[in-house]
Specification:
The complex is a heterodimer.
Chain A: H1 2-32, H2 39-55, H3 60-87, H4 92-113, E1 129-132, E2 135-138, H5 139-161, H6 163-173, H7 175-180, H8 185-211, H9 218-232, H10 237-257, H11 265-277
Antiparallel strand pairs in A: 1-2
Helix pairs in contact in A: 1-5, 1-6, 1-8, 1-9, 1-10, 2-3, 2-4, 2-8, 2-9, 3-8, 5-6, 5-8, 6-8, 9-10, 9-11
Chain B: H1 5-22, H2 29-54, H3 62-78, H4 83-107, H5 110-130, H6 132-135, E1 148-149, E2 152-153, H7 157-180, H8 182-192, H9 194-199, H10 204-230, H11 240-253, H12 260-274, H13 282-296, H14 300-331
Antiparallel strand pairs in B: 1-2
Helix pairs in contact in B: 2-7, 2-8, 2-10, 2-11, 2-12, 3-4, 3-5, 3-10, 4-10, 8-10, 11-12, 11-14, 12-13
Classes of the chains: A mainly alpha, B mainly alpha.
Chain lengths: 291, 332
């Protein structure tokens, strides 16, 4: 029983990271029909930007700020202007393929210009354990969970409570009508790209101390986030959050209760089942089919 | 161009085929390996082009079918079976599993389908890695024999290159025939507008499953050739990135164009080799090249050619129109 509790906490902590990454993914899909296959690499890169800043002599807090800013410029603005904008009118598939190429490019660039080895990364949360209800829980898990939950709450508050958020939702749901009632749709789309870049930088900051900074670390994370987004509902922010937590918990439970060899299979089988019986995801809206 | 288009095309085709037969004769071992790899990947990409380019079903599982074919061939030939028997088994397995994988396509479309197939791809990889009683696990299967063709041993790189090239030729002819048959037209109808296709009396259910099954069977054929080509297989080459690579080949070459997969495979297999002189930068340059190409022409390389030809045709037509108009005016 105690084991189960520990597994749940650890699962929720990983799940919170997946949720952060998956939320950005659904935001991009909603506003610009972008499937970003490089989303995992987007999480990998900011850690290296921060490391580079630290190597140049910046203190940790400054490196974090620089890393987040650079990530918003490169992975938000740059990604939108250089890749998504020129390809948007060509449909979903060529853009998806282009982001696959981008993933290869980012991985190789980090490997070439930084290092092929895994580098340690300082943690923003102190390491060590804390005792809750007689269970030793790592502070890092709790820190990750808290920061991720705060970020997600902040985002949902922005989307649902503020006029800016309402404009963003309008732009996502029906760009034509939004434009007619005076929503600056283009600016809202850019904003979602910036928010995505911020979220991946945050995820990077939270997860890299645990798994080390490595050029290939985006692959697994990207796939987990995609699964989370689809399971929860491709077109729903709250779906992505629920999906992220669910996949995180499922992944951790599978690792100890199912064979370790097939642990990776459990979320995938879950994914297939969800897609077949509820293609719009657990919390998603059904999208109309275009004839 | 308009008058002698067909003979020119045939002549060009013959020159390319002759080139593919003659030029590699003085290639070294490595060059022949790369070229054989191109032939094998072209077959797999052609299968995916049927599923994706002609029938419009996004699949991220083609690499898994190459893996299934490769393991079928490796297991059978190391147990003394001849390669042709293994190819038949690879085709049957690919067809059957592809047919089953087609069922999700009846329910979900586009990116959802992409993710079902992606999940399948990863599951297949896990099976290759974990079922070591059958697949050798992470140690893989080594000493995969190369076949005798008409009594000639193909252990040397050049004869085996001809085996790959010959297989590519057979598959090319079969696919050429298929896309010109009513089946091919049904596939295209499915891609253009599934609802309209259904209302025209096309059994969309059957053709969707067929598109997956035939495409996957070709993936199996490619795998069955890949195993004796490398003579050693382990799970790594058949992970998700092979499926992504194959998808990239089809899109970059030009999805829905007959010659797309040949070009796409050439770029995916040869371009990194040509860029190898740039050492660590080669995959980066390759990625930039792919992105640049897709921004410039999302329909791939053949899309550029297609656009250029269409422009020429409109220009020629308007020139003819102008001539006809001036003649009419002088006649009046």
């Amino acid at each position: 029983m105690s084991n189960l509790f520990d597994l749940l906490v650890a699962g929720l902590a990983t799940g919170a990271i997946y949720a952060l990454v998956a939320v950005g993914f659904t935001l991009l899909w909603q506003t610009s029909q972008t499937i970003n296959f490089a989303q995992g690499e987007f999480v990998m890169l900011p850690a290296f930007l921060m490391l580079a800043a630290m190597h140049a002599g910046a203190p940790f807090w400054l490196a974090i700020i620089l890393g987040i800013l650079l990530s918003m410029i490169l992975l938000g603005l740059g990604f939108k202007m250089l890749l998504v904008d020129p390809m948007m009118r060509h449909g979903v598939l060529p853009l998806a393929i282009a982001t696959m190429a981008l993933a290869i490019g980012l991985k190789e660039a980090v490997k070439q210009f930084f290092s092929a080895e895994a580098s340690p990364f300082p943690s923003i949360v102190p390491t060590g354990d804390i005792s809750i209800l007689g269970h030793a829980i790592s502070l890092q898990s709790i820190g990750v969970l808290v920061v991720a939950i705060l970020a997600v709450f902040g985002l949902t508050a922005l989307l649902n409570r503020t006029s800016l958020g309402h404009q963003m939702q309008a732009a996502a749901q029906n760009p034509t009508v939004a434009r007619i009632i005076g929503v600056p749709v283009e600016r809202m789309i850019l904003l979602t790209f910036l928010i995505n870049a911020f979220l991946v930088a945050l995820a990077s900051l939270l997860i890299t101390p645990i798994y080390l900074a490595k050029f290939s670390s985006g692959e697994v994370l990207g796939q987990a986030a995609f699964i989370a987004a689809i399971v929860g509902g491709f077109n729903q922010v709250r779906g992505a959050i629920a999906g992220g937590l669910l996949i995180g918990v499922l992944d951790n439970l599978a690792a100890s209760y199912v064979s370790t060899q097939y642990r990776a299979a459990v979320p995938l089988i879950f994914l297939i089942v969800v897609i077949l019986f509820r293609p719009q995801g657990l919390l998603g809206r059904a999208e109309e089919r275009t004839v | 161009m308009i008058g002698f288009g067909k003979p020119l095309k045939i002549a060009l085709g013959l020159i390319v085929i002759a080139g593919l037969i003659v030029i590699p004769m003085n290639f070294n071992r490595y060059g022949l390996f790369i070229l054989s790899q191109w032939a094998v990947m072209s077959i797999a990409a052609m299968g995916l082009n049927l599923t994706l380019g002609y029938a419009g079903q996004v699949s991220l599982a083609q690499g898994a079918f190459v893996g299934i074919g490769a393991y079928a061939a490796a297991i059978m030939t190391t147990h003394g079976w001849p390669l042709p028997a293994a190819i038949v088994v690879a085709i049957v397995l690919g067809f059957a599993v592809g047919w089953v994988l087609g069922y999700p396509a009846l329910r979900v479309q586009h990116h959802y389908l992409a993710f079902v197939t992606l999940a399948f791809s990863t599951l297949a990889f896990l099976v290759f890695r974990n079922e070591s009683w059958l697949t050798g696990g992470i140690y893989g299967i080594s000493n995969i024999p190369r076949p005798h063709v008409f009594g000639i041993a193909t252990n040397k790189p050049l004869p085996f290159y001809y085996v790959c090239l010959g297989s590519l030729a057979i598959v090319s002819v079969a696919v050429w025939w298929l896309i010109r048959s009513p089946w091919g037209r049904a596939f295209m109808a499915l891609r253009e507008n599934p609802l309209r296709a259904q209302s025209l009396g096309i059994d969309t259910r059957r053709y969707t499953l067929m598109a997956f099954a035939i495409g996957s069977a070709l993936g199996g054929v490619a795998g069955a050739l890949y195993a004796p080509l490398t003579q050693y297989i382990d799970p790594v080459p058949f992970n998700l990135s092979l499926s992504l690579d194959l998808l990239m080949m089809v899109i970059v070459g030009g999805a829905g164009f007959y010659f797309g997969p040949f070009l796409g495979a050439m770029i995916a297999v040869l371009l990194p080799e040509w860029l190898r002189f740039t050492e660590g930068y080669y995959l980066m340059l390759y990625a930039i090249a792919v992105m640049g190409l897709l921004i410039w022409s999302p329909t791939g390389i053949l899309g550029i050619l297609d656009r250029y030809l269409a422009e020429r045709r409109t220009k020629a037509a308007s020139a003819l129109r102008a001539v006809a108009k001036s003649r009419l005016e002088t006649a009046q």
